[in-house]
Amino acid sequence: MTVFMDQNAPVLTIDGPSGSGKGTVSTLLARELGWHFLDSGALYRLTALCALSHGVSLDQESDVAVLAEHLDIRFDVERGSVFLEGDDVTRELRTEKTGAAASRVAAYPAVRHALLARQRAFRTAPGLVADGRDMGTVVFPDATLKIFLTASSEERARRRYEQLRDSGVGTSYDEVLSEVIARDERDSSRAASPLIPANDARLLDSTHLSVDEVIDAIRVDLQKLKLIG
Ligand SMILES: Nc1ncnc2c1ncn2[C@@H]1O[C@H](COP(=O)(O)OP(=O)(O)O)[C@@H](O)[C@H]1O
Ligand SMILES: Nc1ccn([C@H]2C[C@H](O)[C@@H](COP(=O)(O)OP(=O)(O)O)O2)c(=O)n1
Q: Which InterPro entries match (predicted)?
């Protein structure tokens, strides 16, 4: 893979558990700043989908890592579409089933290693907003600003439930809450790059904040760093 990484480009990392608002906040901030955007969770989701479509067992770390290393993917940023081996997988990518499978393959060190260079290659001028679990701890330890976004599990499940309901997926709040708790547990307890805040991350609890309030709080930090006026 050819890498045009720019080690000097500023990076804003936004890590946190499922439903804390990382994706929403990162996308809006990347647009406002005119920076690139890395949805690292999508890479783990695509790896899991790739394994499922090729009949590779999610229990086989080395086989899944080979798929991760050679992922044939394309992001159509304008349309918000994602393609895996030429197929549009945008809808399938966001399901809770895919999220749970992603969380399983993400526990494998070989898979994480296989995706590292691909993630770092997103760091190009004028800057990058990176959304995930280990952006500030492992992938971009020298990031310019690190945010760890949280919210109570009940609030995160409520947001996810509403999101799924609005997109026509039939499920119950209790089911979503137990999936959220199970995924948090797996992401936080794994040995490889667990979901933990970086020592120098700013913790932001969005339980009682709107999306705009979260963005305002991050803007204050960006202003202090003179990344925005
Ligand atoms: N601070 C917030 N207050 C209320 N709803 C939010 C907030 N942040 C995000 N949401 C909503 O919650 C859902 C999940 O947010 P998302 O950004 O996908 O979370 P994550 O990427 O952390 O899993 C979305 O429907 C989003 O609009
Ligand atoms: N940097 C990352 C990003 C995601 N993962 C894993 C853990 C998550 O449960 C899955 C899916 O992540 P994703 O950010 O897409 O999921 P949510 O939008 O937060 O529900 O991938 C990871 O281990 N490291």
A: Cytidylate_kin, Cytidylate_kinase_dom, P-loop_NTPase
Residue 147 lies in a domain: yes
For residue 100, give the 3-state DSSP assignment.
helix
Return d(Cα 217, Cα 223) in angstroms, integer. Answer: 10
Number of H helices, E strands in the chain: 9, 8
Q: Is residue 5 part of a domain?
A: no
Domain that holds residue 137: 11-222
Residue closest via CA to ligand 2's atom 24 equals 133
Specify the pTM.
Answer: 0.95
| Domain membership flag for residue 155 | yes
Q: DSSP secondary-structure letter at 137?
A: I
Tell me, what DSSP letter sits at residue 201?
P
Q: Does ipTM come in above 0.90?
A: yes
Quote the CA–CA distance of 145 and 142 in Å, as a whole number.
9
CATH of the domain at 54: 3.40.50.300
Known binding positions: 16-24
Q: Is 99 in the pocket of ligand 2 (CB under 6 A)?
A: yes
Can you tell me which atom of ligand 2 is nearest the CA of 100? 9
Domain tally for the chain?
A: 1
What are the residues facing 82 on neighbouring strands?
75
